[in-house]
Amino acid sequence: MTRQEITAAIRQVLDERMNSRHLDGFSPQSRLNSDLYLDSVLVLDLLLHLELDHGIAAPEEAIAATAIETVNDLVELLAGASHSSGAGDTAAADAPNVHADVYPDIKVHCVVSCLCDAVKAAGLDHRPLYFGIWDADFAVSDKFQLRYHTDQISHGFFCHWFERLYGVRVTEWYDHSATKQANLDRLVSLVTARQPTESVMVMLDMFHLPERENKFNQNPFPHYLMLETAADPDTWQVRDPDFRWEGPIAKDRILNAVAQPSVAGGYIFDRRAMRLPATVDIGDYFLACFVSDDNPLIRSIREIVDTHLESRNGVRLQALGDAMRELPVLSIRKWAYEHGFAFFWRELKLPNDTFLPWCDRIEELALGLPALHLKILRLAQTADRTCAADIYQTLGRLGALETAIKAKLHEVFVAWCAHQRLPQATLRKRRVGVR
User: Fold this and answer.
1) Shared domain check, 260 and 116
2) Are 283 and 165 in contact (CB under 8 A)?
3) Distance (Å, whole) CA 174 – CA 263
4) Do 301 and 372 touch, CB atoms closer than 8 A?
5) Are residues 307 and 382 located together in one domain of the fold?
6) Which tens digits make up the pLDDT trace of 255-308?
7) For residue 61, what is the domain's CATH number?
8) Chain centroid, CA 122 distance in Å
């Protein structure tokens, strides 16, 4: 099939199967997210329709590993365009050096990204905070739907450890017993009175800020960012370290996004008193975070698939796609393992060439989850139960991979404890959702 035919098939699927309302000006240069409003899940839906309706398929591993930003990027992937012969050399040249002064940062959790922004501004190492991300709390609803945010999930754990590690108290300014308007008034006063070293965090619904490009396009999409005043009194400066974005947005647009019933939360802290973390506190934080005998996300995915396949608790197989809609938000948290490895590798001065293979395994895990997601969507859409065997095989492989990553991480943690002359570390059993 030619590239022109693939492009035409993409437009046909968007129009006829996905009822897109954003096809004006459709072209190979159209951006999937900001022009066509396709989030990561809708891109998977598009790929699945192309496979089932038009026989156009791409390797699942390539889908996860390829940066697909425009229609043309997708066409090239589906056409099987080969990479240049120098790709391997480029990858080797771009390989991270764990001991470099500047190391690539990872943004996978909005609350932690806001806290880390202040740590970096103080010139301190923020990577220990990432110990709490790879297995950070999530929920499974009573309808067996994966959820990255619920009213029951608290960020108090991160706030507590931020203070213990860096000496900075994080205060929740949002009053859940007060009216929404009272909290909006409180936000305005805090932003207006903000000092240069203060961070005013607020939870808002990103779906109601359409001017912001958002690769997830969840509705609703609860998200934390930070606010400051701007020269124009009708505008606020937004600092969103999780999405690496900073810029002005109309104040009334921001307040509208905060006013949505889907969101409620906010914190304030001042980095002036920030200090270097004590070694014993870093060790205790690792132990408080580390889940040694379980891979909660992979286990929960398996339980959700089981329930839908067996039509238990009133759920249907066709609902499995919606049940997994928020998986992309949780999948990216697995990249946090790399900061955990990097911290201990630097502290122990271990060689970079022994660090890179673990980066590859972390990448395999983080990219394997989107590939798994496509398999699950295929099962939900086709109701072909023979797809289940491939899903369970992939779950087993990813589970074994994450277990191996954790085992190595614990091994270097124990070596670090010995290097720091800390008492013998004892792992504590913890299940995600219970702190």
Assistant:
1) yes
2) no
3) 11
4) yes
5) yes
6) 999 999 999 999 999 999 999 999 999 999 999 999 999 999 999 999 999 999
7) 1.10.1200.10
8) 25
